[in-house]
Amino acid sequence: MFSITIRMMKRSARMLVPAGIAIVIGTAFIAATLLFGNAMNDTLKRMTTAQYGDANYSIGFDTSIADADDADMDYLYSRTVSDFHPERLRAVEGVKGLRFEARAEAVATNGDSHANVFAVTTASERGLLPVTVTQGAQPSGDGQAALQDSTAKQLGVRVGDDITLASKGASHDMRARVVGLTRDDAGAYPYYGGASLLSDDLMAAMNGVSDFGRVNATTAYLDIDGDPAAVKTTVDTINRILPKRFTAQSRDKAAKAAVKSLSGGDTDIVTTFLLGFGALAMLVAALVIANTFQVLVAQRRRTLALLRTIGAGKGQLYASVLFEAGLLGLVASVLGVGLGLALMAAVTASGLTSSIGMAMRLVLDWRVFVVPIAFGVVMTVIASLSSARTATSVTPLEALRPMELSETRRTGVVRGALSALMLAGGLAMCAYAAWQMSRNTAGQASMVDDHYSTVLVMAVGGCALVFLGLIVSAVYWLPRALHGAGAFASLAGPSARIAHANIQKNPRRVAATGAALLIGVTLVSTIATGAASGKATMGEALASRYSVDMIASGDDMTDARASKAAKVKGVTASIYAPTATMNVKDTHGTTITTLVVGVDGADTLRKVMHADLGDTAIGNGTILMPHRSAFGGKDFVFRNGRVELTPASVSPASGDTATSDDARDGKGALTLDVRQADYRRVSADYAAVAFVNIRHFTDGDLKTDGHMMLMRIDADKAGTTLNDVFTGVQSAFADSAGITVTGPIAERAQWETMIDAMMAMLVGLIAVAVLIALVGVANTLSLSVIERTRESATLRAIGMTRGQLRRSLAIEALLLALVSGLAGVALGTGFGWLGSYMVFSLYGTVVFPFDWAVNGATLGIAALAALLASVAPARRAVKTPPVEALAEA
Predict the structure, then answer these.
(1) Is the pLDDT assigned to residue 602 strictly greater than 80?
(2) What does the DSSP assignment read for 201-248?
(3) 600, 648, 597: which is closest to 625 by C-alpha?
(4) Are residues 466 and 483 in the same domain?
(5) Same domain, yes or no: 736 and 766
(6) pLDDT tens digits, residue range 399-435?
(7) Burial of residue 115 (number of CB atoms within 10 Å: 0-12, 13-18, 19+)
(8) What whole-number distance in Å separates Cα of residue 355 and Cα of residue 277?
(9) How far is Cα 343 from Cα 336, in angstroms, rounded to an integer?
(10) CA angle at residue 252 from 248 to 254, to 5 degrees?
(11) Which domain holds residue 382?
């Protein structure tokens, strides 16, 4: 029987190809996901142990001890190099090298050039260095340094030149001879972009101690040689020398512990997340496979009946269909694993991951081969069960009947009842969760107060039930929706009328194909709607809490940097102003830390502030204060409409009156008349930001301790994006680490960048399922062409042209794609709105947008892909002459 099955597969090979492609794509995704997880795990291990160099053991805290208190931690972090007895460690048999990890940050000077330097200790053995020495040698004597190559370029020095090193902890500057250049090939210090190496005396000086043995150290790296037994003896000896609560452990053990700490248990979370999309892709593929086997069994009905007449039993036919499915799944899954391997090999070989700081390698294990193949075979067999059951219902007498491929079975009552229960339950859960959230936003008692996660899970579960209910019931509503759309399309001509008639012949297959596309489009639309709602809601929330679009502040801000930022495209107005941090007391005696900003006047302030300042004037002797605190919203009330400004670092003497000289020196109080306006937060760091006339700074009444730049942004008018404006302003201050850019536009740009990145990743993952669904559309059309060979021949014989036949198939594909896509967009938008309401109601008034761009692009791509999917079936339909087709039929 199995040999007969293989011969039948060969005859139907063309029909099996689309189903095989769906399996290949799904299993390739799963294999690539597992390979990605392996590569990421490997990369994290290498990154977390990059500081080892070639060392195979490290010395550090005994992390297995869980009872460490504050005194213990003080003890651990106060250890110095001499506490580890380095000479005794080097003398232990089997120890080939030792390097202590000490760090220092310094400023290097060469003439008029300056550069920040991050440095670590050197080692006599080059293999123990955490960075690569690209030129010269590592420091081996007093006063020697190997500079990071980028630092050397910034200073304009070469090997052999002298530089000056200074640090906050050093008692004096040190001269250093540059003996080499380094590069961080292993990514040991990615935050700093690499590291320089310092000789022991320089490291001690930069740490403010006289001897290297007094430098604080908690980590050391060892190169231990020997067989396993000898290494164990060496490690035991080392542990006896070490200070208490320190231990030596292998590099492999440390890497596993570090990765587990970083990722919460290897990369299982990331891999599981990605595998969820792989399972989704295989679910969609199962719908394509089920369609294929339904048609195969229908086409072979006469053959199966003949087999029954010669003695084949029901069990044999059942096993034949399952064997065919298993063989198809096996072959396609093996090809899918091969494709996944090729894709990941190409990605790792291309160096694309190196650009994001993760140089990945191809890491194979048994899961990469076993899991996708097993999943592919099992899913294919499960998808064919219904068809196998249909095959067993064929009777010997059916060999004498004409073959009828149109769907005649009625949809079961159980399916209808199950889908109705799912829909009712899901809608009830969604409605209850939304009701509880509405009560919470209205200030009423609700479950959200104490059980927000439960309400959120209820909403997600409700959406899932509604989604499953619609998929299960697709056989009811999707053919009817297609019938309505087809009736409208049939007005376009004979090709459209034929397409409308053909699409109604097999509602089950149409429903399965449409459901496959519905799944992908719904998920894409849900993510796009949620992202759009999140960006709009957070934008509105931020705008309602700030009165200035963007603020840059810092001690080392200069007029030149501010002028550069003011010229950024999208910055329509700006103020560069001096600031002073002062204390203000309200009528209750509460001290309010206030940032006082000097401006030319209220008219200048109106150019950058989104607030109604009325007829307020900012002159000598007045100060503009907000009505409410930016933190708690509490009203500010000041005694007699006056405030006394005192430098935040100085507490005013009770009852004392500051002299003019004291005020000018920043040591006393300055009393001003208060003018209040209803403006919102200006800086997130202060409860109040007040504005005074700039003359108080120029005359010396207030001592400038910083500067601030206030900006009004109009990205749309300038024809740019918020993110570009934010990036441009940041670039203007890039040469100063002390300047921060904040405000609603800055926060909104950061939010939008993060949301867009997440949306792009998720949509990219879901695109795999959409691709498989479109393969299903092509599969449905191909099977339809095979079924309608006689019909197509008859139409050709009575005068239908090849172009009309092609158009009928194109319209059929277009109807499938657009009706399923529109249903998916509607459903996804609803899910996205509910999800946004459940999440973003906590931050402000939720905006419910419709993402025309993404949804329109999704429908357009689905329609275009459907048209392309109709090309091959149409070519097959028109290439056979009518007479030959009628003879074959």
Answers:
(1) yes
(2) HHHHHHTT-SSGGGSB-S-EEEEE-S-HHHHHHHHHHHHHHSPTTEEE
(3) 597
(4) no
(5) no
(6) 555 444 444 455 567 878 888 999 999 999 999 999 9
(7) buried
(8) 25
(9) 10
(10) 55
(11) 2-38+266-400
